[in-house]
Amino acid sequence: MRREELFEKIKNVRTGQSDMESFVKPRPPEEFGDGVQLTYDKENQKFQATVFDPDTNTVFSKEMFTNENEVGKFIMKTID
Predict the structure, then answer these.
(1) Taken in order 54, 58, 32, 77, is the CA torsion positive or negative?
(2) Do the beta carbons of residue 67 and residue 52 sit within 8 Å?
């Protein structure tokens, strides 16, 4: 996923144009991979990034972020 596309999706979540976005890098079945599901809490002005296995939907962790750059870096690091 291109950086511009990633930050456009983050903006859509922040502005309410999208309730949730998922970021997953396709991988062969024999490789393990993580995905990130992103939501935004408007009241507290925080992003919640949930790291999960896209094949089993197992949740590994949940992280909170206050700005788009921090959450963007986290997503890129997680799915690469």
Answers:
(1) positive
(2) no
